[in-house]
Write a structure and sequence with these properties.
Layout lengths: L1 E3 L5 E3 L3 H8 L11 H6 L29 H9 L2 H36 L17
Antiparallel strand pairs: 1-2
Length: 133
């Protein structure tokens, strides 16, 4: 049902009952079956959740990590990738050399034990796992 007021505002009413209530100047927020009433009295709030919690903005600050100071961290950050790669390669080479020396010393110890003849005997290991049933 369409109603045009004198100031040219157009109203669309659902039915005669709604138009009658409008003409009686009844407030929709006081009539129990209207959307305005339900909204004003907080009905049908089951689906909609409460306000979303706002998170505070986390500001990132540069801090020392463990025993490494900020100056060292900034220096490592600013150095070029070639320098960084070279230092990494040097460290790896040093670790490999250390492992080689360790292997050689173990071989030498094993050879000296074999010459002297007192090799440590390993205890026999039972195989099968479960035993008698």
């Amino acid at each position: 049902m369409k109603y045009v007021r004198q100031d040219s505002q157009v109203f669309l009413f659902l039915n005669r009952k709604v138009k009658s209530l409008y003409n009686q100047r009844k407030k929709p927020s006081k009539i129990a079956w209207t959307f305005q009433y339900r909204k004003a009295h907080k009905k049908d709030q089951v689906e909609s959740s409460a306000r979303k919690k706002r998170r505070g903005v986390v500001k990132q600050t540069a801090r020392a990590i463990g025993s490494i100071s900020m100056e060292v961290i900034n220096k490592k950050r600013s150095e070029k990738s070639e320098v960084r790669q070279a230092s990494r390669d040097a460290a790896l080479r040093e670790i490999k050399d250390r492992n080689k020396k360790l292997q050689e010393s173990r071989k030498a110890n094993a050879a000296s034990r074999a010459k002297s003849g007192n090799m440590p005997q390993k205890a026999p290991v039972a195989k099968g796992g479960r035993g008698k049933r």
